[in-house]
Amino acid sequence: MKSFAKFAAGMIAAGIMSLGAAQAETVKVGIAAEPYPPFASPDASGKWVGWEVEIAEAICAAAELDCEITPVSWDGIIPALNAKKIDFIAASMSITAERMKSIDFSDKYYNTPTGIAGAKAVEMDATPEGLKDKILGVQVSTVHDVYAKKHFGDTVAEIKVYQTQDEANADLAAGRIDATQADSFALEAFLETDQGKACCEMKGIVAPDIDVLGPGVGFGVRKGEDDLKAKLNAAIGAIRDSGKYDEITKEYFDFDIFGG
Questions:
Q1: Helix 165-174 × helix 184-191 angle, to 10°
Q2: Which of 8, 72, 106, 153 is the most buried (most CB within 10 A)?
Q3: Considering the entire predicted model, what is its pTM?
Q4: For 127-140, how does the pLDDT look when each residue is reduced to its tens digit (9 = 90+)?
Q5: Is residue 85 within 8 Å of 45, Cβ to Cβ?
């Protein structure tokens, strides 16, 4: 009888544990569906890999969150967050006042300069005068899109807007545009490819504009999700303190991506 009671109690406990596991919600980490190497891109098997993917996974481990990488179209990623299709954004999203009207952000987890890459044969620099009468490519709905229109709109011949940075890079390599503006580290990754080496070079770093470019990149969270935001902030500090952040970073970069 005691044996049966123990068996029954064990089965009930297992059932409760199983029910708890079934009810546990997976936290969906929204990344941009458009490849953005070396931060995030699909490998040959379709798995998403890159510095930002690994950092997001390390953050989830430190915060004890059960996370699922969820690609979302870049220009729909904030609406997807607010519609609860994803739970936070890890997509190289700069912290800006404009974005903070609709979402909140964690502390920054990296900060990189904004650069201009251009055709080797075309003389220019990263200033309004240097880009005078040039065709400049940017990715839609990015801080680079906003910055280019604000600072270069009066001097360039045209600002061409692309769905992905890869498309802008391809048009630059093909000679259909003269230059492109993007995160300088992402541009360096393009310039290290055979296609990039053959055509193009870094022309310079744009002048600061914290109102547009922001103080760095953070995880986007919904307004009111203070508990999740606190967990992400604590996890950023934890992986920085433990050395995990540097361990991941040195596999991709030979410089300090965290920034000042």
A1: 50
A2: 106
A3: 0.78
A4: 999 999 999 999 99
A5: no
Exposure of 25 in the CB half-sphere (CA atoms within 13 A): 7
Three-state secondary-structure class, residue 197: helix
What letter represents residue 88's amino acid?
F
Please return the burial class of 227, using the count of CB atoms within 10 Å of its CB with bins 0-12, 13-18 and 19+. Answer: exposed
Helix (H) or strand (E) holding 161: strand 158-162
Structure tokens at 141: 């709905």
3-29: burial string, b at 16+ Cβ within 10 Å, e else = eeeeeeeeeeeeeeeeeeeeeeeebbb
Tokens linked to 55: 């950092």
Helices (H), 24-162: 51-62, 77-82, 143-151
C-alpha–C-alpha distance, residues 69 and 27, integer Å: 9
Burial 103-112 (b: 16+ CB within 10 A, else e): bbbbbbbbbb
Q: What is the pLDDT of residues 93-124, one digit of tens each?
A: 999 999 999 999 999 999 989 999 999 999 99
Spatial CB neighbours of 207, under 8 Å, sequence gap ≥ 6: 126, 127, 151
Rounded CA-CA distance 30/72 in Å is: 6
In this structure, what DSSP letter does residue 206 have?
P
